[in-house]
Amino acid sequence: MKKFHLAFLASVIPNLALSFLVVGCGGKATDQDDEETVSRAKGKGSRQSEKGKGGSTSSGKEKQPVKGGTGVLQGMVMFEGETPNLTSMTDSLREAMNKQGDKAHCLAGSEEETTQQSYRVGGNKGWGNVFVWIEPEAGYYFEVPEDQLKALAKEKKIHQPHCAFIPHALTLCTRVVADGKGTLKPTEQKLLVLNDAKVSHNTKLKGGPRNPEKNETLSPGSQKVVDLVPENEPVQVECNIHPWMNAYIRVFNHPYATVSAVGKDKGDSTYGTYEIKGVPVGATVRLFAWHEKEGFLTEPKGEVIKLEQAATKKDVAWKKK
């Protein structure tokens, strides 16, 4: 009888262990390619996602397409209230440059390169270098028309003429969703990092799990093509040789994203304005605005808006708490 019990347990225990393993590995994924919209991740860095490798919803149904169109979404991002001490931030930046062995080269940069870049606010309170984008509601995905894909720039560039990355904030669309299962297909858009300075720059790009750290030194005059994939986390660009140098990239699986404008001077009326072309007229979407220091300027879940006409205007006003 004892032998029977031992044989029975030997046959059952492996099956029980296998059952626990199957249950334990059944958690939801959290990548941008999966379910995009309703539950933006908490914290300053992340955009939200819902589930599933193919972009299907938690009910197992395929997502439905929302086709891009001819609409335009435009507005202004405004910084209300008192900004941080920008003069002090610029003084600290230039002090760091003065301590560098190649300080003459660094300080020879333009005002844009030798002035703090995090809070670019115009006289109109327009706030530049803010990421603005839309996402479809849960259960939907953006179907990007071929003409919009063909219109994408083949390259987006980050320059390093002296000791700052130009531009400071950049969006990419390297892949788009091809179907309701979340299949991704590549676009022709790539990131090109150029060292157009007379000194070497170490260029480090680091995002979330889909964009692990890429780190290499670029000699003067050299360049590097970098392939980044869509994900929720922003990609931070840094230089270890000049530690104050940084920039931010957000990589999307659609082209409906931009960065608010930095004006030529404080009196420039375009400061803080943004425009997203080709949006789907008539669709209900969620609007997001995100800043490198302050995180989401909208609610992390986004603000629900309807693109009701050929040109929809939507401002984003934010006040530092």
* Share of residues in strands: 25-35%
What gyration radius follows from the Cα positions, in whole Å? 23 Å
> What is the H/E string?
HEEHHHEEEEHEEEEEEEEEEEEEEEEE
The main sheet comes to: 5 strands, antiparallel
CATH evolutionary superfamily? Cupredoxins -  blue copper proteins
Which regions have little confidence, pLDDT < 50, spanning 5+ residues?
1-44, 46-58
Indicate the CATH topology. Immunoglobulin-like
What is the terminal-to-terminal distance?
Answer: 74 Å
Mean pLDDT: 85
The number of helical elements comes to 5
- Shape verdict: globular
Strand tally is 23
Task: Tell me what you see in this structure.
Strands 5, 17, 19, 20 and 21 form a 5-stranded antiparallel beta sheet that branches. The chain has a single domain, classed as Cupredoxins -  blue copper proteins (Immunoglobulin-like), CATH 2.60.40. The N terminus is likely disordered. It has 321 residues and is of the alpha+beta class. It contains 5 helices and 23 strands.
Key structural traits:
321 residues, alpha+beta, Immunoglobulin-like, five-stranded mixed β-sheet, 5 helices
Q: Any chance you could write out the topology, listing elements then pairs?
A:
Elements: H1 2-24, E1 64-67, E2 71-80, H2 86-98, H3 103-107, H4 111-114, E3 120-121, E4 127-128, E5 131-136, E6 140-143, H5 146-151, E7 155-158, E8 169-173, E9 175-177, E10 184-186, E11 190-194, E12 201-206, E13 214-218, E14 223-226, E15 235-238, E16 246-252, E17 257-259, E18 273-279, E19 284-291, E20 295-296, E21 303-306, E22 311-313, E23 316-319
